[in-house]
Amino acid sequence: MTIEAIMTVCTAIVTYIFGCLNKKFNLTDTNYIPLQNLSIGFLTGIIVFLSGLNDNLLSSIVICTVSALGAGGAYDLSKTGRDET
């Protein structure tokens, strides 16, 4: 397994957990969750670069940001069509 795949999966899991916690405990308005996901992806990309796992800063940020936004979209897609009461 490549480092990019590991970065993608770990970022998606962390983003999914933060999204679930945010929705469960109503920490912020749900309209701000995509912004939360974007910031998680950006910060994770910087951490990955600084830890030496990837030697390209732009690549690290893009991979982590896309996976974070994808995790948020996958969560929302899984809830489509269900009544949230």
Principal-axes shape call: elongated
Strand % is under 5%
Helix residue percentage: over 70%
Please give the domain count: 1
The radius of gyration computed from the alpha-carbon positions, rounded to a whole number of angstroms, is: 14 Å
Counting helices, strands and paired strands, the structural category is mainly alpha
Please trace the helix and strand order, writing H or E for each element: HHH
Low-confidence parts: none
- Number of DSSP helical runs: 3
> How far apart, in Å, are the first and last alpha carbons?
40 Å
Number-wise, the strands total 0
**Main beta sheet:** none
Q: For the residues shown, what is the average pLDDT? A: 82
Provide a descriptive summary of the structure in words.
Helices cover 74% and strands 0% of the residues. α1 (3-25) runs antiparallel to α2 (33-50) and α2 runs antiparallel to α3 (57-78). The protein is built from three helices and no strands. The chain has 85 residues and is an all-alpha fold. It has helices at 3-25, 33-50, 57-78. It has one domain (3-77). The longest helix is centred in the first third of the chain and has 23 residues, at 3-25.
Summarize this structure as a short list of keywords or feature phrases:
elongated; mainly alpha; 85 residues
What does this entry show, briefly?
By secondary structure, this protein is mainly alpha-helical.
List the helices and strands and how they pair.
Layout: H1 3-25, H2 33-50, H3 57-78
Helix pairs in contact: 1-2, 1-3, 2-3
